[in-house]
Specification:
The structure is a single chain. The chain has one domain: Glycosyltransferase, CATH 1.50.10. By secondary structure, the chain is mostly helical. The model has no long low-confidence stretch (mean pLDDT 96). The strands form four sheets. A three-stranded antiparallel β-sheet has the order 5-6-7, with helices on one face. Strands 1-2 form a two-stranded antiparallel ribbon. The chain is built from 13 helices and nine strands. Bound molecules: glycine. The site of glycine has 4 residues, from loops. The active site is at 95 (nucleophile), 156 (proton donor). Belongs to the glycosyl hydrolase 88 family.
Length: 379
């Protein structure tokens, strides 16, 4: 990563300029999930799964600069998240980990804000309430009584279990971590396929806990490999290994990583489904956010697998270079995103070939890793 320090320095400066403009434009509101024609509009309220990526970026901007403006702006968002959990707004989701780790756990770790701690623990309790006892999985979406959603979880949830591990460490109550371990083991055994690809979502029988079948929502087909899901697998299994020391989770992360790297087009930025890597002439879009997530996952994973570390670091550097050169808004001052050319949900035609808030966050996380040796992640 040292070799690209100059290039990342320029990219960091450009990213901070965009964040400054967005801070002035959005105030205490949140950018939407994705851009439209390259620009975010404010979302009306703190709903959905992506809002915490905005304070997450502000915390990163503080790490990159030491500028107190960013710290204060990030900390000010705690109120929006305490309000959300207290009023029960849009909480029927596994994404409470994304939401409360970057907003409130970070604010607690850095500033010891007791309201942030209270809200993050309440979010962890809510996440725990989504565990299906028969299978030990955390239901991904919807009301617990919804028959279409019962027994279903999702590869992205690997990024949400850190909230549970944090809750156990903070309270001394082992139930959160036990739930996270059981859930993650089910993903290792069923969401990760024998050929090292991942299902997007997977169902268990709510009554018996038997594993049933995989199904996609955002991938090309039930049996294909949605690129962002595979990237969540790289980073998510790696984080769960960090919390548990379980070598089978490390092996799962390596399997996700090796498959991902073997199915990239020439510039290293994945198509939105890895199935298209076999035929780049299809013209299918890239998902820059999958690439950005994978960079962070690979760098974190490299530290745990000495025999692959050089390769993972080299590949992460190559992908990040490609993102800076071909996908970032360095040369697009008309955009208020950091990264363009992502795909949110191609089957539903949402956010296709646009910027998205998590892509921006993970791109900035990757730039932070590249320019701040020794930086530690917030997950
Ligand atoms: N976690 C939702 C997504 O990756 O689209």
């Amino acid at each position: 990563m040292t070799a690209i320090a100059d290039q990342t320095g320029t990219a960091v400066t450009a990213a901070l300029r965009t964040i400054d403009a967005n801070l002035a434009a959005f105030g205490d509101r949140y950018p939407g999930d994705t851009t439209e024609n390259g620009r975010y509009s404010p979302r009306p309220a703190n709903t959905g799964w992506t809002t915490s990526f905005w304070p997450g970026m502000l915390w990163l901007a503080h790490d990159l600069t030491g500028d107190d403006t960013y710290r204060k702006a990030a900390a000010a968002h705690v109120r929006g998240f305490t309000d959300r959990i207290d009023r029960g707004v849009d909480l029927d989701t596994h994404d409470l980990g994304f939401l409360y780790t970057l907003s409130c756990v970070t604010a607690w770790r850095r500033g010891r804000d007791p309201e942030a701690k209270r809200a993050a623990l309440a979010a962890a309790d809510h996440l725990l309430s989504r565990v299906l006892p028969s299978a030990g999985i955390i239901q991904a979406w919807g009301d617990l009584a919804d028959p279409r959603q019962q027994g279903r979880t999702i590869v992205d949830s690997l990024m949400n279990t850190p909230l549970l591990f944090w809750a156990s460490r903070t309270t001394g109550d082992p139930r959160y971590a036990a739930a996270a371990r059981r859930h993650t083991a089910q993903l290792r055994d069923h969401i990760l396929r024998p050929d090292d690809t991942t299902y997007h979502t997977f169902y268990w029988d709510p009554a018996t806990g038997e594993p049933l079948r995989g199904e996609t929502e955002q991938g090309s087909a039930d049996e294909s490999c949605w690129a962002r899901g595979q990237a969540w697998g790289i980073y998510g299994f790696t984080l769960n290994h960090q919390y548990t020391g379980d070598p089978t989770l490390l092996a799962a992360a390596v399997r996700c990583a090796d498959y991902f790297l073997a199915h990239l087009p020439a510039d290293g930025v994945a198509h939105w489904d890895l199935i298209f890597s076999k035929d780049p002439a299809t013209g299918e879009e890239r998902d820059s956010s999958a690439a950005a997530i994978a960079v962070n996952g690979l760098l974190e994973l490299a530290a745990a697998v000495p025999n692959r570390a050089d390769r993972y670091r080299a590949e992460a550097g190559r992908i990040l270079r490609s993102l800076i050169d071909g996908y970032s808004t360095l040369t697009r001052p008309d955009s208020n995103a950091l990264l363009l050319h992502g795909v949110y949900d191609k089957p539903k035609d949402v956010g296709v070939d646009e910027g998205n808030l998590w892509g921006d966050y993970f791109y900035l996380e990757a730039l932070t890793r590249a320019t701040r040796p020794g930086w530690t992640h917030p997950w």
